[in-house]
């Protein structure tokens, strides 16, 4: 069923595992994530960035795709439809059109403004049973044109943000969106530990989940991370499998043409399967298999 993420993220925090927040881009992507979640019996957030929302024809369409697939695919695990890194207006629109979870990302704003807008989003969202994520500090790297410089989350900002009534907190701890550079220094687990001490029991979100070594992810989960966001990894898995299939197609053109493998339902299938495999593998690493 489609639900708010509040309860299942809280349950993850209380029981020492993390749920995946997987970004979607289209129908097939959504099917792949849902198939993986159902196969693993894992609660999951399917999230759209603002850009992906636009790409999918608007938030209303994105919401409808997730909702209708959950029904037609007989998905039994809890699924939240979540806005990832949303501006204030986008968060409001998503609450309006039926997203069950939103991230208001005011991390680029002065902290007082970030807090004030988060409070407003919480009021509007909670009135509709929608869960809320907000961010302090910044995630390094670039996503959909939003560039963060990777500033560690100030502890007092984290405490103040939790007091706004949000349900889970994204905090910069040296994590980066997109592929990690060779000279990356790793997660600042010592900083995460300080954050967790300041907001005991509160679910922390780890962004930039693609490319962090599994042992570091699991150490972060042990400390208090209850949601891990994954986007790039699925994109790379899809692109790799699609490119391999295209190369195979080139080499066997006449045969593949005769088999009508140019049909998008066939042409895209290896890529879609690769997304499903990547999501299943992440769910195992996060420990949320069989937690539905
Ligand atoms: O908000 C989305 C995530 O933080 C994704 O990061 O593309 O590095 O996996 P990623
Ligand atoms: Zn992110």
TrEMBL record:
Active site: 84
Residues where dihydroxyacetone phosphate binds: 178, 208-210, 229-232
E.C. number: 4.1.2.13
GO biological process assignments: fructose 1,6-bisphosphate metabolic process; glycolytic process
Keyword Lyase attached: yes
Gene Ontology molecular-function annotations: fructose-bisphosphate aldolase activity; zinc ion binding
Classification via PROSITE patterns: ALDOLASE_CLASS_II_1 (PS00602), ALDOLASE_CLASS_II_2 (PS00806)
Residues engaged in binding Zn(2+) 2: 105, 135
Catalytic activity: beta-D-fructose 1,6-bisphosphate = D-glyceraldehyde 3-phosphate + dihydroxyacetone phosphate
Keywords: Glycolysis, Lyase, Metal-binding, Zinc
Pathway: Carbohydrate degradation; glycolysis; D-glyceraldehyde 3-phosphate and glycerone phosphate from D-glucose: step 4/4
Enzyme class of the recorded protein, top EC level: lyase
Protein's UniProt keywords contain Transcription: no
NCBIfam families, alphabetized: cbbA, fruc_bis_ald, PRK07315.1
Protein name: Fructose-bisphosphate aldolase
Organism: Floricoccus tropicus
Highest classification ranks of the organism: Bacteria, Bacillati, Bacillota, Bacilli, Lactobacillales
């Amino acid at each position: 069923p489609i639900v708010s993420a509040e309860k299942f993220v809280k349950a993850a925090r209380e029981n020492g595992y993390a749920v995946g927040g997987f970004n979607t881009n289209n129908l097939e992507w959504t099917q792949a994530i849902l198939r993986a979640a159902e196969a693993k019996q894992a609660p999951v957030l399917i999230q759209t960035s603002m850009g992906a929302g636009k790409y999918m024809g608007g938030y209303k369409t994105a919401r409808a795709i997730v909702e209708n697939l959950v029904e037609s695919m007989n998905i039994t695990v809890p699924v939240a439809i979540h806005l990832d890194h949303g501006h204030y207006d986008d968060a409001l629109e998503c609450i309006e059109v039926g997203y069950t979870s939103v991230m208001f990302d005011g991390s680029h704003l002065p902290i007082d403004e970030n807090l004030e807008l988060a409070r407003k989003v919480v009021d509007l969202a909670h009135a509709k049973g929608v869960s809320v994520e907000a961010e302090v500090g910044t995630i390094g790297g670039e996503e959909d044109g939003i560039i963060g410089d990777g500033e560690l989350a100030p502890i007092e900002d984290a405490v103040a943000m939790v007091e706004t009534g949000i349900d889970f907190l994204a905090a910069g701890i040296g994590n980066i969106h997109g592929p990690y550079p060779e000279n990356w220094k790793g997660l600042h687990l010592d900083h995460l530990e300080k954050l967790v001490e300041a907001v005991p029991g509160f679910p922390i979100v780890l962004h930039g989940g693609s490319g962090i070594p599994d042992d570091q992810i699991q150490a972060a989960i042990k400390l208090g991370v209850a949601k891990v966001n994954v986007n790039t990894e699925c994109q790379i898995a899809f692109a790799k499998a699609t490119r391999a299939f295209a190369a195979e197609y080139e080499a066997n053109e006449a045969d593949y043409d005769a088999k009508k493998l140019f049909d998008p339902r066939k042409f895209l299938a290896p890529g879609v399967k690769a997304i499903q495999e990547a999501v299943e593998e992440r769910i195992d690493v996060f420990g949320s298999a069989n937690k539905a």
